[in-house]
Amino acid sequence: MSATYSEQAPAKINLFLHVTGKRDDGYHLLESLVCFTATGDVLSGECRDDGAINLTITGPMSASLVLDDTRDNLVVRAARLLQDESGTALGADLVLDKRLPVASGIGGGSADAAAAIRLLCDMWQLDLDQKALARISLTLGADVPVCLHGKTCLMSGIGEELTDLPDLPEIPMVLINPGKAVSTPEIFKTREDEGFSISGLWDIEREFSSGASLADALSDCGNDLTLAATSILPEICDVLNALAREEGCLLARMSGSGATCFGIYDTKEQAEKAANAIASQHVDWWISPTQTLCEQTRELSNIGASFPD
Ligand SMILES: C[C@@](CO)(OP(=O)(O)O)[C@H](O)COP(=O)(O)OP(=O)(O)OC[C@H]1O[C@@H](n2ccc(N)nc2=O)[C@H](O)[C@@H]1O
Ligand SMILES: Nc1ncnc2c1ncn2[C@@H]1O[C@H](COP(=O)(O)OP(=O)(O)O)[C@@H](O)[C@H]1O
Question: What CA dihedral angle connects 38, 39, 41 and 45, to 10 degrees?
């Protein structure tokens, strides 16, 4: 029996997201402080020697994806690109435990693609250089390079320029999605008439010892896609208000192109309490109390333990 490999696909959070320009090909230039959370999908797999790539999708959010052709799934696309690049004759039976809401601004599909790259490079013992991996990841989506990087960083360009930042402490958070997908291209199109933010505002050397000091610095920034997203899905305002009104909330903001929003809380207890209180009023919302991944917790999660449900 062949060994089972497993990789975690943590949700990506855009702590701030500024749109700083637009390229001739229509892609937008961004500047975003990105971190990752202990909430995420889990990808596992076994090696095949016939080159076939099979994907089974399980988990609470699998219904949003199982009806799609799995050939279009970012996990399978990542696997095919790695096969082409490396020339390997190996294949894989992959299982994606889908826990993150789909098309929700926390990069679930991108995180899965990045997890597939990590898992298959390990399983197939590929020795591809960083340049090849960066190229493959960007081909899969603008958010895939940062998910492959997997560490707190400042993301710029269209998503391919990554600057490491001092690690964040473990910050208590609540993630909420109102249960409705939003389309990233549509959000960018809707904000067409809005101007651009200035780049270079974030002090890349600044260190934060607590969620409070981070939230304070983040209050000078924002998410430039919020106006467009709330005009398409006004429920996002309800989510932001629900997060902000709970005790201990230091900041409530939308991630990416939405609709998932995050609240930063002073303590873990306050985050848990807020999540429970909001869940009792909104049974159809996806609500996840969590925390940011920092160096220490990331090392622990690499041991192979899966994310908490
Ligand atoms: C907005 C962000 C912020 O982190 O997050 P999400 O909302 O997806 O989580 C990302 O840039 C999304 O990255 P990703 O979802 O991989 O985007 P892609 O598949 O490459 O592009 C989808 C579409 O979004 C628009 N797009 C995306 C990225 C970018 N820098 N400029 C753009 O204009 C383009 O219209 C593109 O056709
Ligand atoms: N493994 C996957 N998980 C989620 N979405 C996927 C996956 N593979 C392909 N997709 C497609 O990618 C699109 C963006 O999904 P996702 O990455 O979840 O969005 P976002 O980056 O906004 O959180 C969806 O429309 C979905 O159909």
Answer: 30
As a CATH number, domain 4-164 is: 3.30.230.10
Domain boundaries, the chain: 4-164, 172-296
Write the ipTM: 0.98
Residue 293: Cβ within 10 Å count: 28
Atom of ligand 2 lying closest to residue 182 CA: 22
Tokens linked to 292: 């940011």
Residue 168, class by beta-carbon neighbours within 10 Å (0-12 exposed, 13-18 middle, 19+ buried)? buried
Q: Which of 74, 236, 257, 262 to mutate to test the pocket of ligand 2 (most atoms within 8 A of CB)?
A: 74
CATH of domain 172-296: 3.30.70.890
Please tell me the number of the ligand nearest to residue 16's CA: 1
Specify the amino acid at residue 129.
Answer: D
- List of the chain residues with pLDDT < 50: 300-309
pLDDT digits (tens, 9 = 90+) for 258-295: 999 999 999 999 999 999 999 999 999 999 999 999 87
